[in-house]
Amino acid sequence: xxxxxxxxxxxxxxxxxxxxxxxxxxxxxxxxxxxxxxxxxxxxxxxxxxxxxxxxxxxxxxxxxxxxxxxxxxxxxxxxxxxxxxxxxxxxxxxxxxxxxxxxxxxxxxxxxxxxxxxxxxxxxxxxxxxxxxxxxxxxxxxxxxxxxxxxxxxxxxxxxxxxxxxxxxxxxxxxxxxxxxxxxxxxxxxxxxxxxxxxxxxxxxxxxxxxxxxxxxxxxxxxxxxxxxxxxxxxxxxxxxxxxxxxxxxxxxxxxxxxxxxxxxxxxxxxxxxxxxxxxxxxxxxxxxxxxxxxxxxxxxxxxxxxxxxxxxxxxxxxxxxxxxxxxxxxxxxxxxxxxxxxxxxxxxxxxxxxxxxxx
Length: 361
Ligand code: SF4
What we know:
This protein is of the alpha/beta class. It contains 16 helices and eight strands. The strands form two sheets. Strands 2-1-3-4 form a four-stranded parallel β-sheet. Helix 12 crosses helix 13.
């Protein structure tokens, strides 16, 4: 099979490796661009959120490159995530594309369906072989998460502007080429070493910002205007509320989600509202308790879970004394506008920190 999938941050090399291990041809998607988004937006319903449009555009690009199968995963309601696989399929079929669609529901929600889809993907290989492949993919994922966190810490302290991103991109290319267990282990050592050799000033005390919100716009840099890099270059250390390994534990291998943030959210929002809406509420509290200087909430325009979370932001900000910047993102959002808002937010956090230091002095 010639299999394509949506591009979502560091998940891309993992999917590519799994497909190749199962003897499929991976039609690995390129990082989305404005053209990808425009293509998706052209055929998507107007109400669809931006992850839907970017992924639809990506599918179209991959089908034109010869993909005959699309692989996708989907969330479960109550937001629209539960409908999106089927909707993607129908739109593409209506456009005349012929392809097979392998759609994974969360395994603990629909185990039989998940098993059947996995069986289709594994083809002639044994379940034991598939299990080893998944374990290997997880070990690679762990390294990729670690590299992202290292880059997030080093970037605001780097001595030469852009050196962390350059080292990170090189590290990602090395990790992408690592296919066997031993190659992944040695590439992990090499790439950690590469990042730790980036010259940086460890005595700097950068502002710290937590990034929260919907998963796709958190994990795909194109969708969030390369927010982590932008903030890093403004001298801000970031940490996301979602990494792929934590998502695997909380949302794939469990039906409960991240109970840490959900528990914190309970006094303000006692029930799940779909997506990561409830988590966003708890994550604001979590970052405030950890002494972060601010939080950026990333929300696709019209994303109901994040709209619900946003409605609680003023109260949370007041109760926990932490500024929160919400960025609603759709295809009309411009890079310059996002940058201006980020700069203003960084200024605000700087002023708050200086004032708090003066009060404490
Ligand atoms: S979480 Fe938000 S962006 Fe994601 S599918 Fe649901 S409504 Fe859309």
